[in-house]
Amino acid sequence: MSAALNAPFPDPSGWHALLAQWEIPSRITPEERITLMNALRVQLDREPEVLHAPESRDLRDRIQALTLAIDDLTLAIVIGQARIARDEASVDEAIDVAIALWRHGHGADAFALCRRLLLMHRKAERALHVLDDILAWERKIWPLPLPDATWSDGTLSLEPLGHQHLNDFAWAYADPDIAERCCLPRFDNNDQWHGWLDRISGYNDQMTFGVWHADWGFIGSVSLVMADDIGFFYYWIASDFQSLGLGPRAAALLFDLAEQAWGMRCCYAKVFTDNIPSIRALTKLGFTNTNIAIRSDDRDEWLYRWSPESDFPAPPALRAEAHLLFERMGSTTRVLSLLAPTEAIHRPRLAHAKVERPAKQDPDATTANDNLTPTYLEVFNQAVCNQRPIHSDTGDQPNQKFCPIGVSCGR
């Protein structure tokens, strides 16, 4: 990992000159992006004076351009605010910082910055458009009431997923295994993603959140469907951020919100029988295998249940609860049977048997999700300006070891 961290800037003492000469590629892969994000943090930790030294102005300009190109919102905000404070940023560059703040869940700060820009530059129409869309977002009525715009533990935050998060979602969702494991769509283009978000936002019993890390930005998504006081939960975490305990932390945040705001008494999740990483993750969260076999799209899954008191209903009540949940959700999932304990213990072990997987694809080949394209804020800026109304303290480091983790969608 250390070699990958320093790959873009192999000589720390010469990274200023190298960055000044380096041309930002027109297309950056997710692997290149995480490497660049790591490298920038390593170098800025070594030379924090870059943020304020007068002689580092050109370097700040280059870093700002790079962070926007790769949608590194955390550093874009840090560098951008430093440049604004030193009166180095143009109006458009300051608006880019406001957009980054908004996408990262800092709506009040983004609103204040846009207002300040309008007071100083009354013809800054782009700032006015952004301000209007922030107001519309803040006034949005959600299917389930939210006590606050974000729900946070200090390092991780949950923010409702919105159209402004296209780029952030696309980077994190790039691994096609996420869609397969979670029974989620593969998107051929950006419009398909916007349509999917409109559709799930139209359910009156569901909330879908982006999971935001204070240092690394958007790292995944969690979703909860409520049927009376019964919840159904699914989630996914980007492959670079798996095996760090972030999925269970995000789920714990969601359950805390659901208990306090929506009166959730218990929660269900379903997972494919061969998805051992997610089974382990659910167990860490306190979920218990109900021994109910279910099937959706002719694939076998297990139904897991969680409750704060760890109560477990008798089998008839358990089946009735599960039937009620899936009926209310309009799910195609079928509850097959309540297995005998010995069978329930035996079957998950089959998941350890060798599974024939598709051959690895050519890395240069195009997959469906490759067409869900982050484009240096172009898509977002078009949406804001003229096209679409925009309806650690833990020291976590992203890893590049792939381990598909995600609990499958219920609809």
Explain what you see.
The protein is an alpha+beta fold and 411 residues long. It folds into two domains: 2-138, Serine Threonine Protein Phosphatase 5, Tetratricopeptide repeat; 151-352, Aminopeptidase. Helix content is 43%, strand content 16%. It has 16 helices and ten strands. It has helices at 2-5, 15-21, 30-46, 57-69, 73-85, 91-103, 107-120, 125-138, 166-172, 176-182, 190-201, 246-262, 276-284, 315-329, 341-346, 378-385; strands at residues 151-152, 156-160, 206-213, 217-227, 230-237, 266-272, 288-296, 299-306, 334-338, 406-407. Strands 1, 2, 3, 4, 5, 6, 7, 8, 9 and 10 form a ten-stranded mixed β-sheet that branches. β3 and β4 form a beta hairpin. α4 (57-69) packs antiparallel against α5 and α6 packs parallel to α8 (125-138). The radius of gyration is 23 Å and the shape is elongated. It starts with a helix and ends with a strand. The model is unreliable at 1-10, 333-368 and 374-405 (pLDDT under 50).
